[in-house]
């Protein structure tokens, strides 16, 4: 006869196995796209350029999907700047960033939401839900300011923890503005270098990195204090 107390442990083991599978898939994608570079970004860029007037819209869609596949965001943003210039390119980059956040968060929710709640347990899951309700939007905004964190991977995690898609879209748009401008300007300078724009991009990057590092450190201290 099966012991009823074994059921929760079995559920947790299954949830952990599902999450491990998701993480493994993301790790393979990261290796293939960011390290092995199996996707030729330059070839994609040339193909999109051939679509003529529809190129900006095409780039938004293709870049959003490639970003969700963990192709590095700076490369995609730089490609946008190279093709469309600093102004239109920044708008295109922001559109692709929002699309990437929505795709990644949706997949993360579908693949890992239930497993994450099972591992957390009912009480902690409800606490996380309340935290997200109060500050999910600003958590997404803050993550975008912290240097060195993959936006796509973070979006998968936010989706698994149940951040609503509207918060993902708004947070990605607000939080990605500085870096979208920086990386797009870097790409546009490949075709035509502009010293004022380059200096502005460097200044924005430095300020954003400092703010992000400070916010992350403060958030970590507050979390430790609550513990």
TrEMBL record:
Protein family per UniProt: Belongs to the TVP38/TMEM64 family.
Stored Pfam families: VTT_dom
Major place of residence: membrane
Keywords per UniProt: Cell membrane, Membrane, Transmembrane, Transmembrane helix
Domain VTT: 71-188
Domain of life per record: Bacteria
Signal peptide: none
Gene Ontology cellular-component terms listed: plasma membrane
Membrane-protein topology: Multi-pass membrane protein
Keyword Transmembrane helix: yes
Subcellular location: Cell membrane
InterPro entries assigned to the protein according to its UniProt record, in alphabetical order: TMEM64, VTT_dom
Transmembrane segments: 15-36, 57-77, 83-107, 153-175, 195-216
Name by which UniProt lists this protein: TVP38/TMEM64 family membrane protein
